[in-house]
């Protein structure tokens, strides 16, 4: 056992009084110990070392990886677990892109197809504001009949009713679609969206930033290079974003580590990411699983490992790592929050995309439930805004 891990063991024994920790870590594989020792010395882990961590033997190495990630989490952000009061508004499910992992999209003629009018969108935002939400997250399908300026109309309709609501809206794919509809560049479109009231963008539509994998997931979606370009452009215009990775389908450790490495390089250049959100693939109602034979989502061990290795690779670059209670469930998230994560996500209120794919864990979380789940871990709950500024420590 290396010196840095030995020091960590001693610290953990003092904190949680578990005498078996040293015994568990003493069996850690030598090469994994070497990488974790390097991480605890706060030296950057390479993509190749990240792949080695992902391929580690869970029976021998998982505990050491979790402890290391949790220590780096403690150094980066302390023992507070944050969440945001937000409302998801998915304004339309009409989309013809044909992503094989998606069960949300519908054609215009489908019985369950919908398109939320502007007045209702702004009313939902106001209702959310009235009960304490500080953010609305706006995303929708790529409806073939909407004009490129419709994205601006949504923003203005919300700001006219609740001018101080933070609008977190439009994936990079929606941004590409809107720019194409208007016949303008990505930069021009983003500037006009910002002028209309856009505050930040979700870093969704990333899936796995690997060309071969993306072509199998969907042939018509934006490329990895386009995703990177759109996100970098947004950051340079002062529009910050989240970052995500969808894993557990036709991907593997090499793809995960490379994806995280790309995000790290973007962050070094722009500093624009507010958080990283690992998203396990929800398989139940998807073509990718039911017709094309993908895996049935990630394993529980992978959910822990992806978060832990992400913390280790992103240390000093992206401080906030979020769990997805919609995809993993609140109790599993409590475990993942002890493997390097520090944010519980948002109240959501109207989550529909994961629910359409078959996620069984609901569409709304009461803030008091967040507080209880966080206190169960011996950590401190805090309400944040989109940019991770603390607004309140619940009593």
Short description:
Helix content is 48%, strand content 12%. The chain is α/β, with parallel strands linked by helices and 395 residues long.
Task: Pick out its properties.
four-stranded mixed sheet; three-stranded parallel sheet; 18 helices; alpha/beta; TIM Barrel; 2 domains; globular; 395 residues; 10 strands
Biggest sheet, open or closed, and with what strands and sense? 4 strands, mixed
Q: Name the CATH homologous superfamily of the largest domain.
A: Aldolase class I
Alpha carbon gap, first and last residue: 42 Å
Strand content: 5-15%
Coarse morphology: globular
Helices and strands, in N-to-C order?
Answer: HHHHHEEHEHEHHEHHEHEHHHHEHHEE
Per CATH, the class of the largest domain reads Alpha Beta
Strand and helix layout:
Elements: H1 3-16, H2 21-26, H3 30-40, H4 47-54, H5 58-77, E1 80-84, E2 86-90, H6 118-130, E3 135-139, H7 150-161, E4 166-169, H8 172-182, H9 186-196, E5 200-201, H10 211-217, H11 224-236, E6 240-247, H12 253-270, E7 273-280, H13 287-290, H14 300-314, H15 325-328, H16 330-336, E8 343-346, H17 353-357, H18 367-376, E9 380-384, E10 390-392
Parallel strand pairs: 1-8, 1-9, 2-3, 3-4, 5-6, 6-7
Antiparallel strand pairs: 9-10
Helix pairs in contact: 1-3, 1-5, 3-5, 4-12, 4-14, 5-14, 6-7, 8-9, 8-11, 12-14
